[in-house]
Amino acid sequence: MPEWNDRERAALVALLKTRPDGLTWPEVAAEVADTRSAQAIWDKHQSPDLFTENTSTDALTEALDDVHRWQQADFRFLTFMDREYPQQLLEVHQFPPVLFTQGVLRQHELGVSVVGSRSASEFGIRNAGELARLLAKVDITVISGLAAGIDTTAHTSALESGRRTVAVIGTGINQYYPSSNASLQKAIARDGLVISQFWPDSPPSKSSFPLRNATMSAYGRATIVVEAGEQSGARIQARLAVAHGRPVVLMDAVVRGTNWGAKLRGQPGVLVANSPQEAVEHIEKIVYDDGQVSDLLAKVPS
Question: What is the pLDDT of residues 251-264, one digit of tens each?
Fold first, then answer.
């Protein structure tokens, strides 16, 4: 098996950037995972005619320059073939082939996503803050998406509790979105972890946030939806979590206030909570009564 080194990382980056033969990112990742060599997949998809040779070489050279530059930056660059890549992400089909992180990356992180509407009500904001504080008390990392509203409150409350929080963002690691959360993102990078699956300078886009939701769902042990509308991104994450086999806790207001929440109720792995305390009780049963979690906890650094 070829050694996974910077040239292999560069070949993966080149594949993702050029998408030869129209390959999607999941298709690129699947082919590389199968052969254990991005270089072999790159060579496989290159046209043999002389006119594309320089283009091929240039793409690889540019990708290698990117890898070396990222390794010297104030963030960390990982591919899904690297040993430090979070293993829980590999459990889902939509795992990101590359990650950029700031802060301390922990293997086997015991965390739960707290998500909801950007235009949250005062009631939703109070519930999000209480949820984050209660999760912090039982040593569960609060994961969220750094959006306005519920996400911001969850992150802030975790930090104010002196506990760890993880932000899975929908932009490149060098971007701050919304701009009003720049200082919060920096605080999370200092005291927790910021994760991005996009090229470092990528701006927000319509497609980036659903992709972020898939990664957030996969990274955590479960998802709590605090408050959401019919078209909320939290709806996407709830459905993805169910598809991933990750438990979902819906606050009662979500079930009563949305058609999608009502339809999710009763599905395997979906629970309903009438209060933050009840939601965290559900989560404790999920993460501490699951026989697999005892093995994970033994690996979490103290």
Answer: 999 999 999 999 99
